[in-house]
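[Q] Does anyone have a clean structure-token version of this?
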Amino acid sequence: MKHLSEYRDAALVQGVIKEIARTVTRPWVIMEICGGQTHAILRYGLDQLLPAEIELVHGPGCPVCVTPLELIDKALAIAARPEVIFTSYGDMLRVPGSRDDLFSVRARGGDVRVVYSPLDAVRLAQENPERQVVFFAIGFETTAPANVMSVLQAQALGLKNYSVLVSHVRVPPAMHAILSSPLNRVQGFLAAGHVCAVMGYWEYPPIAERYRTPIVVTGFEPLDILNGILMTVRLLEAGRPDVQNAYTRVVTYEGNRPAQGVIQQVFETCDRKWRGIGTIPASGWRLRPEYAAFDAEQRFAVSEIRPEEPSVCIAGQILQGLKKPHQCPAFGNPCTPERPLGATMVSSEGACAAYYHYHASSPLAAGAVGD
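[A] Here you go.
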């Protein structure tokens, strides 16, 4: 792989921008699926450098942001139990539930711990046989292999005190939901490179063909993103609903077949709620019945928790590309990263957090190379 600085070179960026400007002849709306791409776009001011004809909208590719409120409330109920060590990635701790967050549970004495891998949680279960250890298994296809491996490892070790609270979602059904909506504005997609590194992009051609919408697999550095936009614009201008790969140094058409195999071994497809959006059919994964012993929802009997989404947060409209974060009346006041009203403001991949931190800056426009 080339040095990252080569993918952040201001002169090369300006060159691709000029090529996009030469190519585009009419307005187009393009959605980047991934929250990591959203943050890169805002951090480097790419949206401000693009021709006025190109509008970027931000999709539901932030796993923290789309974790439904009821899963957060279930996590809070489990984490508050005295026999539980509740483990999670750090950016979940401040995501608001109906009345609380995991930081508040920890402040009241709950044993809530940040881990950097689900296998860290398995090790905690080994070291604390008298406690129940729960891992909050959220994410898209990217994190699924590690999460299912933790279940298989716990099974191999014979651990009876390890379980996972599963909130896994899948990208292709979300694309179907966005494109089939009567309110849809999206005309082209930048697909998430890390998801496709696991799953490939063999699921995307039927989507592109059905909705006549081009899809380009795209990376996360400025040049990656701009090349993905350029390829998308060329397809849009030509009226070709093709699927192309702008991230060939990482992604193949087939993806990681062994990883896909282990996912299918442990998970099965299910309907899944998305925070602010609602239920999308066949958009999630859950544990197969043969792994039900590792299901935290069943172990702690929290399946009946069904809170209502708050009306003040418009994250659902933002995640569908219908509105931008600054169009929310609560953006910046009272909703800030320190006091978030919704997950899109607290997550490291959330669109609202990206706008809050980066929207005024454009380092590449000024000729600087990103760090």
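[Q] Thanks! Anything notable?
[A] The first strand starts at residue 28 and ends at 34.
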